[in-house]
Write a structure and sequence with these properties.
This protein is an alpha+beta fold. It has 24 helices and 20 strands. Helix content is 49%, strand content 13%. β15 and β16 form a beta hairpin. The two termini are 61 Å apart. About 13% of the residues have low confidence.
């Protein structure tokens, strides 16, 4: 049994309420409209003059709190238990839809459904026994049939540049490219709401000075990882419908009104189609709005409509239209269900059971063909040791082939082969770069120590680490195997690395770093010059930022600049390695293509000459084709390994790029502070910076030094003293509002 959509009507308070036209029922669940007959149309006039509408509630002269309690509180509570929910405000322009949904951000008590829903969600999370509930936020705008992300300015991932599209999937409808932001508390969520509100499209209208010219959908995503349920709450503020002949809109406002009326007309068609049980096809794709609302209207979701109407007799036609829409919405039936999250643990158990059954089936098959010794479990230490021994004998030439009787042994064998190949490549690179000596050749080591002692204080180069490397405090590589040294003590001096190639052991590096830190502490402990002396030494006009930046990197920002350079060098090395691996992958792909062509030629030649089969009906191929097949198999495995390495390198590059960007931003921000405090503070403020004073550079931000009137923070603190004692829950609301106002003001100053 489905659930009917709930519909409420909210009447905008007005001093010119038409009591003789609009009348409410005694139960506050019905509304009647009466229109006087037009005497000019004569005695015979059969035009309807009265209408009656039954709804779930009539909200007249109700507060924002009462409106939320009636409309949204139950829906949000059910969303916390896994049910999707949608609340939609519909009505003519200026009827109070945005006030109902968002409210007035100036005062806490006038906040709308969205801020109150956010507060209810986080209060419920705070009272919950489990701490595995995550909340995410998105804010979508549909303006002139174009999808816009109202929160795209808060991301740095480039999501705002991505082409947005509505996508249907088995889990429902979602907007591809729409940014979704994780929030940890009420203040973070309200921050996103207020920031999104500043990005909405509004225009002055004859019925409303700040008319919303777009449909907006604020979505709260809730996921409980403990009980494996998830849900979302769509809070929709529809743009207002209007009669163009009455409002006289023109220009851009006229174009916007045409798009709005068209999308709302399609929405009404969808409502009529959903209410008809005989309709097989519902045209959700007629507009972006109806496509996005597919799950909310025709899906498994709790849906509530608030029809906002005006109380003046002048707007009675628009009021009738809104009430008809609300009545049609009540005809729709939805089937809300709990959204269960995909259970990974249960899936693992199912797959393990399936693997066990497959192993039993294989064992049965092997017993039928007298292969009872085959096992399909993990390899034992004895089997691994046997494979290593066979590989060692095979490489020496003692045996011609390696015996393995299942796929797991074959894979293990290939792994050891590839490991030996990689070790050989590493050894070749080390031989080309470093001097290799035997660690048991004490005479050579003693000579090296004597020669290297004079170079330790001239070079500081990071020590490479590898499991086959034995440093002996001198050289970056010494073979563990082998008995012969590459260089004797007599020849070592001719082959020792230069000063720029000397490698210092880790212990010496730690000593140097400790000494450098002690020097830094000593420098910090020294008494600084008086501020008045520093001020007198400043130039009369500030230097250019380019010159000052070079000076900053050499002095105050030297440590940040050093870290930045090191991270950048690591990033360049990773990119170089990634390029090498990518070239190797391309070479392997080309070789695979060549082998595939050769195999195809062999098969065509075999088909022309005739194919041979043995007594069991198996195809017989020649040695050349067999070798090609094995070579192709090896290349495929090498391709997979190289591709995995490339993916790892890409992840490292992304992380290194993140570190470089952070260092760069830190360097620039520190420079801006240093430049402002060093050159831009006015003279009359410099006079206040005396040794005996309480003000020091850095204590007051430069924007407050230049303009010392009351700022947003001070206004917020003053407001706290007056407002918070009566409403302690309003802290997050006012903090989020203050942060948004500060961002808007800073953006306005930067654009000047």
């Amino acid at each position: 049994m489905g659930t009917k959509v709930r519909a409420f009507v909210r009447v905008k308070p007005t001093a010119h309420f038409a009591q003789d036209v609009i009348k409410f029922g005694p139960d506050n669940k019905s509304i009647d409209i009466y229109i006087k007959k037009d005497a000019k149309k004569g005695v015979v006039n059969n035009k309807q003059t009265d209408w009656s509408f039954k709804l779930d509630g009539v909200l007249h002269n109700t507060s924002q709190e009462m409106t939320y309690e009636t409309v949204a509180k139950k829906l949000v509570s059910e969303a916390l238990t896994g049910y999707n929910g949608t609340i939609m405000c519909y009505g003519q322009t200026g009827a109070g839809k945005t006030y109902t949904m968002t409210g007035a951000t100036a005062e806490y008590k006038h906040r709308g459904i969205i801020p109150r829903a956010v507060q209810q969600v986080f209060k419920a999370i705070a009272c919950s026994v489990d701490s595995f509930i995550t909340v995410r936020i998105s804010y979508l705008e549909i303006y002139n049939e174009t999808l816009c992300d109202l929160l795209s300015t808060t991301t740095s991932s480039g999501a705002s540049d991505m082409q947005m599209a509505i996508v249907d999937c088995p889990q429902g409808v979602y907007v591809k490219g729409l940014s979704i932001h994780s929030v940890s508390d009420e203040e973070d969520a309200l921050n996103l709401l207020f920031e999104g509100e500043t990005n909405r499209v509004i225009a002055e209208h004859s019925l409303n000075k700040n008319s919303s010219r777009s449909h907006c959908i604020f979505t709260i995503y809730i996921e409980d990882l403990y009980i494996c349920i998830n849900s979302k709450i769509n809070l929709i503020d529809l743009a207002g419908s209007e009669r163009l002949s009455k409002t006289g809109s023109e220009g851009r406002v006229l174009k916007e009104a045409a798009y709005i009326n068209k999308s709302l007309s399609f929405l009404e068609q969808i409502i009529i189609a959903l209410a008809d049980p005989k309709r097989e096809h519902i045209p959700f794709r007629q507009s972006k709005l109806t496509h996005v609302l597919k799950d909310s209207l025709g899906g498994k979701c709790n849906t509530v409509l608030v029809a906002n109407i005006c109380g003046e007799a002048l707007h009675v036609e628009e009021t009738l239209s809104s009430l008809r829409f609300a009545t049609r919405m009540k005809w729709i039936t939805t089937e809300p269900v709990v959204n269960v999250t995909y259970d990974s643990e249960e899936t693992v158990k199912t797959l393990e059971k399936e693997i066990s059954l497959l192993k039993q089936e294989l064992a049965m098959h092997d017993s039928l063909v007298n292969r009872s010794l085959v096992t399909y479990g993990p390899l034992t230490d004895v089997q691994v040791a046997e494979i290593k021994s066979q590989i060692h004998e095979y490489l020496k030439g003692a045996i011609d082939e390696i015996d393995f009787f299942n796929t797991m042994l074959r894979g293990c064998c290939f792994f050891f082969f590839s490991q030996r190949q990689q070790e050989g490549e590493v050894e070749t690179r080390l031989r080309s770069k470093y001097i290799l000596i035997d660690k048991n050749d004490f005479a050579t080591i003693a000579a090296a120590q004597k020669v290297m002692a004079g170079h330790l204080q001239h070079a500081l180069v990071p020590v490479p680490s590898y499991k086959e490397i034995n440093l002996v405090h001198l050289f970056p590589s010494i073979r563990k195997e082998g008995t012969k040294s590459l260089f004797s003590g007599r020849d070592l001096a001719a082959h020792l690395p230069s000063k720029s190639q000397v490698v210092v052991p880790t212990k010496n590096l730690d000593v140097k770093e400790k000494a450098r830190n002690e020097d830094t502490v000593k420098n910090d402990a020294q008494p600084s010059k008086p501020i008045s002396e520093e001020i007198s030494q400043r130039p009369s006009s500030p230097p250019s930022k380019a010159v000052a930046f070079e000076q900053f990197k050499e002095e105050c920002g030297s440590e940040i600049n050093r870290i930045f350079k090191e991270n950048k060098s690591i990033l360049l090395a990773r990119r170089k390695r990634s390029s090498t691996v990518a070239r190797r992958i391309n070479i392997i792909k080309q070789e695979m293509e060549d082998i595939k062509k050769a195999l195809e030629a062999e098969r065509q030649e075999r088909s022309q000459q005739g194919e041979y089969v043995d007594e069991k009906g198996r195809l017989i191929i020649d040695e050349k084709e067999f070798l090609l097949i094995m070579k192709l198999k090896d290349l495929k495995e090498e391709y997979r390994c190289s591709y995995a390495e490339l993916q790892d390198l890409k992840a490292e590059i992304q992380y290194c790029q993140h570190l470089v960007d952070r260092c760069r931003n830190k360097l620039i921000s520190e420079f801006e502070i240093w430049y402002s405090e060093s050159f831009l503070i006015p003279t009359y403020v410099q006079n206040a910076l005396k040794p005996s004073g309480n003000i020091r550079p850095g204590m007051i931000p430069i924007n407050r030094v230049m303009c010392l009137e009351e700022d947003e923070q001070e206004r917020f603190e003053r407001m706290q003293e007056a407002m918070l004692p009566t409403g302690p829950d309003s802290v997050a609301f006012y903090k989020a509002k203050m942060k948004t106002d500060q961002k808007v003001m800073s953006a306005g100053h930067s654009s000047l």
